[in-house]
Amino acid sequence: MAEPRFLIVRLGSLGDILHTFPAVAAIRETFPAAEIVWLTHPRWKSLVESGELASEVWAVESRSFSSLCETISRVRRQKWESAIDYQGLWKSAALPFLGGVARRIGFSSETIREYGVPLLYTDRVRAASQHIADQNGELSLCAGARKPVAGVSLRVAPEDEAAVRDYLLRLEIDRYIVLSPGGGWRSKCWPAERFGALCQKIRTHLGLRCILNYGPGEQELVAAVLAASGAAAPVPYNETLGQLMALLHNAVCIVGGDTGPLHLAVALGTSAVALFGPTDPARNGPYGPGSAVLRSPKAVTTYKRGDEPDPSMLELKVDDVLAALLGRMGAKL
Prior knowledge:
alpha/beta
């Protein structure tokens, strides 16, 4: 009997892909010899490959008509046990639908935020779990997995490990803490001035320098953290995804908000202090052990994007974050 073939659709983004890995791992564990093809954005192809769960990773640019047509054509040429859309958007659900996959699994309208998308599925799952990773696992159960989620181990390329090791050696840095002050929406970010004050306290209390990870468009944010850090002199860092993985993998701890790099660090087994405000950590927080989550009891859950830090983020004091960090380090040491 031929092994089943599964089409996985999760195009982006960083944190969302990481929260999909456990669900796909459950399929791989149940069907160890299955062909699993994962559709994702070109930016995240290497990340998906690092999970070593997919037999093949097909990169598709959803804003390119030619890329979409090519992908749909590839899908149509092959037989599939089922397609699982973990993303729940029109652009993701349309790929297996137009590709002619007979069985298409996705979330029901109670879970999906884009109206009408479930019309493209043959099997609609009304998620009962709270965390998004566990919700994804419910789709895997529908596809035949024996359990909703399974363990994942990300592979960090040796060349990226070597590049980061040489970089730190030149700076004479051995042990370090990564700070991730960005996060896409400014409303879920802790103020830059407080990250700077935290840098100073880490240098004073622990004798460690901080490395500031930042992404595109966050140069001004990092400049504000540097200005508030004084003699603590944190190191700005903006390199490839592979080198970021190596940096996070070897860090003592990471401090950040609800952002992709924090979730990546947790997936790599690094201790984390997660700072939450408008988004709900019960749904979107670090998945698995090794994290301390700080959230004000005054926080009100909303996913509306704002240009200024949410008032609940201002409730998180520098000394409280430092105490949580010392607690994570104590647990680690």
